[in-house]
Amino acid sequence: MQFHPTKRENLDSLMTADENLEMFDYIAPYYDGANRILSIGLDSQWRKEAVRKLSPQDCSLYLDVGCGTGDISLEILRQNRNCHIVGIDKSLGMLEIGWKKLRRFGLDSKILLKEGDCLSLNFPDDSFDGVITVFCIRNVPDHRRAFSEMVRVLKPASKLVVMELTEPLGQIMKPLFRIYSRTVMPLITRIMSSVSAYKYLSDSMAAFPKPDEIKGVMIEAGMTEVRYKQITGGIVTVFEGVKDIERKRPSFCAR
User: Fold this and answer.
1) What does each C-alpha distance from 129 to 86, 177, 219, 245 come to in angstroms?
2) Could you tell me if 14 and 203 are in contact, meaning their C-beta atoms sit under 8 angstroms apart?
3) Around 70, how many Cα atoms within 13 Å sit in the side-chain half-sphere?
4) Could you give the CA distance from residue 62 to residue 87 in angstroms, rounded to a whole number?
5) Max alpha carbon distance in the chain (Å)?
6) 169 CB neighbour count, 10 Å cutoff
7) 44-55 b/e (C-beta count within 10 Å ≥ 16 → b)
8) What's CA 104's distance to the chain center, in Å?
9) pTM above 0.70, yes or no
10) pLDDT value at position 252?
11) Is the confidence at residue 150, as pLDDT, over 90?
């Protein structure tokens, strides 16, 4: 199956929500394996770093937005066995793999993975002790609305962590990544799944807003103490912030 991402007017992503859902349902069986190979095994370290930023606490409830096959939810539980997690994703193909993992590890009582849309979270205000989203926001067609929803369901003074793949920095990493994305990635993905689906990966990294822009969106959505850290030469950026206890709902929520 071929996927041809093109920036569309009024979208923050390279694909519509329906196109993105179709792509992730298609690549779901290959997703975990391809990510391990394409990241040279670094993806698990990146996820650990994101969850460390979240700092899960005992008897707390966390929301994993765009949970995919459940790796972040599982990592939260590895770092603190005494908490609970709800993970949401639009792709049933990805969720089915996540459900199999939970059954295999016997963690159904600790983690609930369910279908859901980050642009319209089906939870009351101030529901969660922390919210995390990893490798998801890049694929969302409306960043402001997504951040507004995540902040809405977050308890005041609680933390939001966002990790995303971004275009590498510097005179060495940037050209090296371009060579890698144009030669190695297509070869691997031709064997494992869809070349065009993983071409979207590099294209969407390049199209993703600069970190300071995302920081501004987080502040606009009602976050304070917002900061970010770029790791692995800028291939990954992790953002964190705390929900403002004085937060007022921003005007763009009504869009």
Assistant:
1) 11, 37, 19, 13
2) yes
3) 27
4) 8
5) 52
6) 14
7) eebbebbbebbe
8) 24
9) yes
10) 41
11) yes
Nearest to 165 by CA among 141, 134, 133, 187: 134
Q: Token pair 């071409």 is at which residue? A: 199
- Specify the DSSP element, H or E, that contains 225: strand 223-231
Q: What's the token pair of residue 229? A: 């850290």
Helices (H), 55-107: 71-79, 92-105
All residues at 6 or more sequence positions from 210 whose CB lies less than 8 Å from its CB, including other chains: none
Rounded to whole angstroms, the Cα distance separating 212 from 231 reads 15
Positive or negative CA dihedral for 210, 213, 219, 224? positive
Return the bridge partners of 242, or none.
Answer: 159, 224
Query: pLDDT tens digits for 191-205?
Result: 665 556 667 777 888
Amino acid at 187: L
Domains, the chain, with CATH or none: 17-245 (3.40.50.150)
pLDDT tens figures, 51-70? 999 999 999 999 999 999 99
128-134, strands of its sheet edge to edge: 111-115, 84-89, 61-65, 128-134, 154-165, 236-243, 223-231
The identity of residue 236, as a single letter, is V
The 3-state DSSP class for residue 64 equals strand
> Residue 253 has what pLDDT?
42
What angle do the packed helices 71-79 and 92-105 form, to 10 degrees?
A: 30
